[in-house]
Amino acid sequence: MSMKVERSTLDQVKKRFEINKKKIEEKQKEYDFEERMKELREEEEKAKAYRKEKLKEKKRKAEEELTFEDDDEMAAVMGFSGFGSSKKNS
Predict the structure, then answer these.
(1) pLDDT score, position 29
(2) Alpha helices in the chain (DSSP H)
(3) Whole-angstrom Cα distance, residue 24 to residue 28?
(4) Dihedral sign computed on CA atoms, order 56, 61, 64, 66
(5) d(CA 40, CA 21)
(6) Which pLDDT does position 10 carry in this prediction?
(7) Neighbours of 75 (CB within 10 A)
(8) pLDDT tens digits, one per residue of 15-62
(9) CB–CB of 82/75 below 8 Å?
(10) CA–CA distance from 14 to each of 5, 7, 11, 22, 25 (Å)?
(11) CA–CA dist 4, 23 (Å, integer)
């Protein structure tokens, strides 16, 4: 396997510059303002939905962390044995 690189001629380099320049001009022509605005709106909607989903997940996790056991422990610390009544009304 040879590690030698073929040297480019001046004409080859000029042709390559022309090809690259044409590619850049084509990209500029394809630019459509309305299409770009539509893409931006879609990205914004996706980001909004993602944030909303994260918030729901955060709330769900917070609710899972709060269990009745924690409430019972807090009630015991505060001196309550329970929130219900042991007496029956007759």
Answers:
(1) 65
(2) 10-30, 33-65, 68-78
(3) 6
(4) negative
(5) 28
(6) 93
(7) 13
(8) 999 999 999 888 776 667 788 889 999 999 999 999 999 999 998 888
(9) yes
(10) 19, 14, 5, 12, 17
(11) 30
